[in-house]
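User: Please fill in residues for this 120-position structure.
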């Protein structure tokens, strides 16, 4: 039978082993993910992001490691702000990193899984 203090230690140890998942990317004005960060956008939501002029985006660490569930596509549209097509893209694993952007890009979106072919 466990004592109250033993149970507390076990609960604290279990809580410490659970990594906090983060699925929110942030766009920044500079190329180093440090200046004028916007509000977080959920990388599981494929909605269009009109973030023209941004210099970088911080991709979060979801805590899922290198599993297939942690693969995403970052879709970039050069010509308009409505994500009408895919000018370029990057397949990535969400492990926490800063991606430099071309400030002339007009819109972005995140899609689960690997990227498809460009279609603009």
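Assistant: Residues filled in for all 120 positions:
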């Amino acid at each position: 039978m466990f004592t109250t203090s033993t149970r507390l230690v076990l609960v604290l140890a279990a809580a410490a082993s659970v990594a906090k998942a983060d699925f929110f990317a942030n766009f920044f004005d500079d190329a180093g993910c440090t200046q004028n960060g916007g509000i977080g956008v959920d990388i599981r939501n494929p909605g269009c992001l009109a973030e023209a002029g941004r210099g970088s985006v911080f991709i979060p660490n979801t805590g899922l490691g290198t599993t297939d569930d942690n693969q995403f596509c970052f879709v970039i549209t050069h010509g308009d702000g409505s994500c009408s097509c895919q000018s370029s893209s990057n397949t990535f694993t969400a492990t926490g990193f800063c991606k430099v952007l071309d400030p002339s890009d007009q819109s972005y979106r995140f899609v689960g899984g690997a990227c498809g072919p460009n279609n603009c």
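For context: The mean pLDDT is 86.
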